[in-house]
Specification:
With about 525 residues, the protein is an all-alpha fold. Helices cover about 80% and strands about 0% of the residues. It is built from 19 helices and no strands. The longest helix is centred in the C-terminal third of the chain and has 35 residues.
């Protein structure tokens, strides 16, 4: 049974205030996305200030990743259980408080602990925000535009964070990359309190304690294992043990979910073919996006000698192309052609852009050698990411909206971790092979590093093309509006249920550029 003013939700969805709601929820999403790349840019300064080692540096990022990735499904279910406006406000306040503590950190352990708490509150915040977005935009005409804007924030905010992080670090102090979250959260809390109408909470949902324990342990083990793969290697005993343990625990979780009356992750959420294909798309974009941003950030700063703020500016063509493609694909094309052409075509375009990026040299011109690849990559991602988020959660029952949102975010989170670990390992191996029979002068070393980036980029091209093929086989081509009209009778309750769905997008880069 759902308690809450659904009529108030309907009134909000029908009013002009819904666009202010989008602004509030977009601000909350931007805060979480920015946090990943802002802290990445700031890490060298934070390391000098707090005096921690290179070996420990990764934990400033990994602590966030472990908490966020491990608790996402739980956060999604809590938003279904407690009410999404309530959990959104709790997540915003908690995230801001943890950010303030991190900015005040006087020791490495204090900073890492604050980052872990940030991740925990982000896992509560993200599913709540996205569920509220979709219940607000029930009309398919507005839904496309809203998802396009929100998807652009989710997929392009990481690059925007590089610019803001570089600016704050260069002109203020690294601590402001954390303090800025307090400002974002304050705006979002005020707006949420004034504008949002909660549908209420589902009193029928009961906690799935065994499933929660299994999935949290499994996801934490996998994310931890992936973080260790980059430094220890894929064949290391600890890496393999963590990944194997995570796989076993997730298998146990799946077994539990088929046998409990009220599972943490209802099986029907992940058995519809469009959702399966869309989860794969989100996972693949996580691999490609964050792997690419990581390598290009290193390339801009270490090879071309860009400052942090110039590095951020260098991503503007990617951000612009992604924003335009996101709105166009989700608002104009998705309802007309359906998800299959967008996902398959978008992956092909992104692969073309990545192919251009894989031809970098130590003296490549930015305008002629880098911008075209960034633009194509942005168009491709914008054509894939928002439609995938929309499709992955389209038609999910209201009682499962939060956990479906969390599942999408989890897919991108794990994709980002896989991309960072896999592509970093590929790049390091290619660099080592290049140097094996050469004298390591400065020029040769720089060339070897760029060669490693290029080889990793070609691996990403293969992943993108493989995803295009799989999505073409799995995802259907029926437009959302047509399917909605064909399956849902024209009554408020059925429209509300059919429109219930969520999407997410954030993740974080794992290694700090020098």
């Amino acid at each position: 049974m759902m308690n809450g003013p659904t009529s108030g939700t309907d009134a909000l969805a029908a009013s002009s205030r819904r666009w202010w709601v989008l602004a509030v929820l977009g601000t909350a999403q931007l805060m979480v996305v920015l946090d990943a790349t802002i802290i990445t840019i700031a890490l060298p300064s934070a390391q000098r200030a707090l005096g921690f080692s290179n070996a420990n540096r990764q934990w400033v990022l990994t602590a966030y990743t472990l908490a966020f990735g491990g608790l996402l499904l739980v956060g999604g279910r809590l938003s279904d259980l407690l009410g999404r406006k309530r959990t959104l406000l709790i997540g915003l306040v908690g995230f801001a408080a943890a950010s303030a503590v991190g900015g005040l950190a006087t020791t490495f352990l204090m900073l890492v602990a604050a980052r872990a708490v940030q991740g925990a509150f982000a896992a509560l915040l993200a599913p709540s925000a996205l569920s509220l977005l979709t219940t607000t935009f029930a009309d398919p005409r507005d839904r496309g535009k809203a998802f396009g804007i929100y998807g652009g924030i989710a997929s392009g905010g990481a690059a925007i964070g590089l610019l803001l992080g570089g600016t704050l670090t260069e002109y203020l102090d690294w601590r402001w990359t954390l303090y800025v979250n307090v400002a974002f959260a304050t705006v979002a809390v005020i707006g949420a309190h004034v504008l949002l109408v909660d549908r209420g909470r589902s009193t029928a949902i009961r906690p799935d304690v065994r499933g929660t324990a299994a999935v949290v342990a499994g996801l934490v083990s996998i994310v931890y294992g992936l973080s260790e793969a980059e430094t220890r290697g894929w064949a290391d005993a600890l890496t393999l043990s963590l990944l194997l343990a995570g796989a076993v625990l997730l298998g146990v979780f799946a077994w539990i979910e088929t046998r409990v009356a009220q599972p943490l992750l209802p099986i029907h959420v992940v058995t519809q073919r469009n959702r399966v294909g869309s989860y794969l798309a989100v996972f693949s974009t996580g691999i490609a996006t964050f792997g690419t941003l990581l390598f290009l950030t290193y390339y801009f700063q270490q090879i071309l000698g860009y400052s942090p703020i110039v590095t951020g500016l260098a991503y503007l063509p990617l951000v612009g192309a992604l924003a335009v493609a996101s709105i166009t694909a989700n608002e104009v094309l998705l309802r007309r052609v359906g998800p299959r052409p967008l996902l398959t075509g978008g992956f092909v375009i992104a692969a073309a852009g990545m192919t251009l990026i894989s031809r970098l040299g130590i003296h490549t011109s930015y305008l002629s050698g880098i911008v075209p690849g960034l633009v194509l990559f942005g168009i491709g991602l914008g054509s894939v990411f928002p439609p995938a988020l929309n499709t992955a959660t389209y038609g999910v029952p209201a009682s499962d909206a939060g956990v479906a949102s969390a599942l999408v975010t989890t897919g991108q989170q794990i994709g980002a971790s896989v991309g960072t670990a896999l592509l970093s390992t590929v790049a390091a191996s290619a660099t080592t092979r290049y140097l094996a029979h050469r004298t390591a002068t400065n020029v040769v070393s720089a060339t070897a590093t760029v060669h490693g980036y290029n080889v990793a980029a070609m691996v990403a091209v293969g992943i993108l093309l493989g995803s295009a093929v799989i999505c073409g086989l799995v995802v259907t081509g029926r437009p959302h509006a047509a399917r909605h009209a064909a399956t849902a009778p024209a009554s408020p309750s059925s429209l509300e249920t059919a429109a219930e769905g969520v999407h997410a997008g954030l993740s974080q880069l794992r290694d700090a550029p020098q």
